[in-house]
Amino acid sequence: MRLPAFMQPRILKQAVQAVFSPAFTTRFPSETFEPQDAFRGRPRFNSDGCIGCGACSQVCPPKCIEVIDDLDSTPPKRVLIQHLDACIVCGQCERYCPTQEGIRMTREWDFAGFEPGDFEERIEKELVMCEICGDLLAPADQLYWLAERLGPVSFANPTLAMFSGQRLGYVQQGVRNSSVTTLRSDRMAIQCPKCKRQTAGAA
Ligand code: SF4
Ligand code: SF4
To answer: What is the pTM of this model?
Structure first.
C-alpha cells in the first residue's frame, strides 16, 4: 500500500530538517530588505543632470513619461512627469538618456503609496523660443549642454553662439532686423531650424 505523502521517509526527513533550519525567507517588514546591487527599481529624475530633451519619453514603452510644454508661463517651461503607476521598470529611459544622468534606475522596490501624487515625479525646464518666429526652439539646458559638448566649434552655429553669449553676458539678444521680412542679416539670432533655413536663403 502506498503511504500518504507526509508519511513517506523522504518527506518526513525534509520536514524535520526544515524545523531546525534557519528561515529561507526575509524578515520584512520587521527588518529592512536590501535588494542586490544589480536590482532595477524605481526610476528617478535628476534635475541637475536632465536637459529636458524628452528622449526618455519617446523610448518609454508604456508612455509613462509625459512631456508638457507650457508656453503661456513666464518664462515658458517644459514639465516632465514620470507616472510610476504605469512604469514597467524596463530601464530604457536611463539607457537612452543622452546625458546618462537625467534619469537613473534606483534600487527602490517598495512602490506603495496612498495618493496619486505618491506615484508621480516631475521636473521643470525653462524653454528657449525662436527670436524670429517665436516658436519653441529647445530647453535652455539642452542648448547649454550642446554648446558645452561642442566647445569652440559651437560658435560656428549662430544660435548656440548667441545663446552662449547671453549666458556669458556679452550679448543681450540676437541681431534681428525691424521689418517683418526675414533677411540674411537675421542669421545672427537664436532661431529654430525653419527660420534658419529661411535666413540662409534670404537676400
Ligand atoms: S535628459 Fe534624460 S531624463 Fe532628461 S528629458 Fe532627456 S532623456 Fe529624459
Ligand atoms: S523604466 Fe521603462 S517604463 Fe519606466 S519610465 Fe523608464 S522607460 Fe518608462
So the answer is: 0.81
